[in-house]
């Protein structure tokens, strides 16, 4: 999980960018030196295929030697830049892993102080790749030291196995996890029975509502319309003609859609637009989904890291 302060993140990114730019520039320069000298040597050899005088032929070996030196210098530049960049990366990786080790130990201590039992934690970066501090397999274990209030930590999983062989009998789990709510088997069955009864009541209520809406109300409306007064039939006819007029205005483009209708139309247009391009480029859509999931994971892990930095267990 990331542990760098927010005010140092910009400086860190700038440092990484400057290093990448310097490496790319030196790499391009070395490749250009090799290409120019190699091309010049090829041109000289091609020139020798023609009839040349003694003076020209005698100067060719020195020219080829100079070009060979130039190629060697370019290769040396690439070699030096490669190992310089490698050493730079190793240095900063070790610095970063040292910070991750401190955060992992802080989090494990906070959890063991809350629940005094053997625990294990491991760290990963903002892209959910496990971090492996030097000399460890990435797993930090800890346990309350017997006979004291100290907390023992180790980056070796086998140390926890050794502790468990000599540890006292299992503690009282109810007292350790007293702040965590739990249910007994009888309570779970009772809650399940209550949920089933509630579901049955909701089902019966829905059946009654559907019966009224689908059967009773239409039948009552038809009966009332047949035996009812003439003014009721006139109201029904007026309401029908009003709906027809609204539909005609919308069809001719005179009717102004409501805010909800405009929002729905805009959303439908975007969905069709996105669907069209996703169908044209399914690989790109897959990459977009992966990037979204990656960003969600990064944001979640950075939040967890910020909580740990404040001493708040997640």
Task: Characterize this entry briefly.
The protein is mainly alpha-helical and 314 residues long. It is built from eight helices and three strands.
Q: What does this protein look like?
A:
The structure is a single chain. Helix 1 runs antiparallel to helix 2 and helix 7 packs across helix 8. The N terminus is likely disordered. It contains eight helices and three strands. It folds into two domains: 173 residues; 120 residues, no CATH class. It has 314 residues and is mainly alpha-helical. It is 75% helix and 4% strand. The chain has a three-stranded antiparallel β-sheet with strand order 1-2-3, sandwiched between helices.
Features:
single chain; 314 residues; mainly alpha; 2 domains; 3-stranded antiparallel sheet; 8 helices; 3 strands; 4% strand; flat; disordered N terminus
């Amino acid at each position: 999980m990331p542990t760098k302060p927010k005010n140092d993140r910009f400086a860190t990114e700038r440092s990484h960018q400057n290093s990448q730019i310097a490496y790319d520039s030196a790499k391009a320069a070395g490749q250009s030196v090799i290409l120019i000298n190699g091309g010049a040597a090829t041109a000289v050899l091609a020139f020798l295929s023609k009839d040349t005088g003694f003076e020209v032929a005698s100067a060719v070996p020195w020219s080829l030697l100079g070009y060979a030196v130039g190629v060697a210098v370019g290769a040396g530049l690439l070699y030096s830049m490669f190992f310089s960049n490698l050493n730079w990366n190793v240095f900063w990786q070790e610095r970063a892993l040292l910070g991750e080790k401190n955060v992992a130990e802080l989090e494990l201590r906070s959890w063991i102080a809350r629940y005094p039992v053997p625990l294990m934690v491991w760290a990963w970066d903002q892209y959910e790749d496990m971090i492996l501090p030097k000399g460890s397999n990435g797993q930090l274990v800890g346990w309350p030291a017997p006979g004291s209030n100290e907390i023992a930590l180790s980056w070796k999983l086998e140390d926890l196995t050794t502790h468990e062989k000599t540890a006292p009998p299992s503690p009282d789990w109810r007292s350790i996890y007293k702040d965590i709510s739990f249910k007994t088997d009888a309570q779970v069955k009772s809650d399940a029975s209550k949920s089933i009864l509630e579901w049955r009541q909701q089902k019966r209520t829905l059946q009654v509502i559907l019966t009224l809406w689908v059967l009773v109300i239409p039948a009552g409306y038809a009966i009332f319309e047949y035996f009812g007064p003439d003014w009721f039939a006139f109201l029904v006819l007026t309401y029908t003609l009003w709906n027809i007029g609204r539909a005609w205005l919308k069809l001719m483009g005179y009717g102004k859609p409501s805010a909800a209708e405009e929002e729905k139309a805009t959303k439908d247009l975007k969905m069709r637009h996105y669907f069209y391009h996703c169908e044209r480029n399914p690989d790109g859509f897959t990459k977009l989904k992966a990037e979204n999931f990656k960003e969600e994971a990064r944001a979640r892990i950075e939040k967890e890291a910020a909580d740990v930095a404040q001493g708040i267990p997640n």
